[in-house]
């Protein structure tokens, strides 16, 4: 095991691919990448040379923040 990843592994976190991210957040692929570029959505994690994923917990936290912001305006 890599020492620098031990903290990530010890949390209850998993890596999800773009299809699942899009289903969870409801954004289009183009809007997702635009939001990442503008630092409004969690950045992806490089899995291999041609593969990226997102941490499930970060995507859920992003959705929850949107719900919280909506509820605070009511």
What gyration radius follows from the Cα positions, in whole Å? Answer: 14 Å
Helix/strand order: HEHHEEH
- Largest sheet, order of strands side by side? 1-3-2
Sheet with the most strands, sense and barrel status: 3 strands, antiparallel
Shape: globular
Q: What's the number of structural domains?
A: 1
Structural class: alpha+beta
Summarize the amount of helix as a percent range: 40-55%
Distance between the termini: 47 Å
Low-confidence stretches: none
Concise synopsis of the structure shown:
This protein has helices spanning 6-10, 18-25, 29-37, 56-73, and strands at residues 15-16, 45-48, 51-55. By secondary structure, it is an alpha+beta fold.
Overall description:
This protein is an alpha+beta fold and 74 residues long. It has one domain (3-73). Helix content is 54%, strand content 15%. A three-stranded antiparallel β-sheet has the order 1-3-2. A hairpin with a 2-residue loop joins strand 2 and strand 3 (51-55). The longest helix has 18 residues, at 56-73. It is globular. The N and C termini lie far apart (47 Å).
Features:
3-stranded antiparallel sheet; 3 strands; alpha+beta; 4 helices; 74 residues
